[in-house]
Design the sequence.
């Protein structure tokens, strides 16, 4: 089962919550996550979370989602200004 997830506000808590939830290896056994957002934004947040070891896989469409991986579909093609709340 594929599970689509949006990160919401890139400066909000959404990316952190998503990454922490997907760090649980049981999640990848139950579903194939497809995050709609940006791997750059997610990587930025990932680097701020201590002791998290997950890999992100960039894909172009949900049809290309790989089982057992955290898939990311890029929605933004511009530079980001991080201003965490």
Sequence:
């Amino acid at each position: 089962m594929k599970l689509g997830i949006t990160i919401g506000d890139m400066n909000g808590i959404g990316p952190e919550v998503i990454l922490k939830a997907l760090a649980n290896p049981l999640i990848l056994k139950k579903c194939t996550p497809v995050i709609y957002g940006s791997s750059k934004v997610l990587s930025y947040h990932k680097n701020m979370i201590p002791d998290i070891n997950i890999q992100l896989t960039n894909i172009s469409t949900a049809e290309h989602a790989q089982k057992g991986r955290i898939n990311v579909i890029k929605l933004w093609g511009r530079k980001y200004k991080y201003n965490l709340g």
Summary: The helical segments are 14-22, 25-30, 39-46. Residues 19 and 46 are 7 Å apart (CA to CA). The radius of gyration is 12 Å.
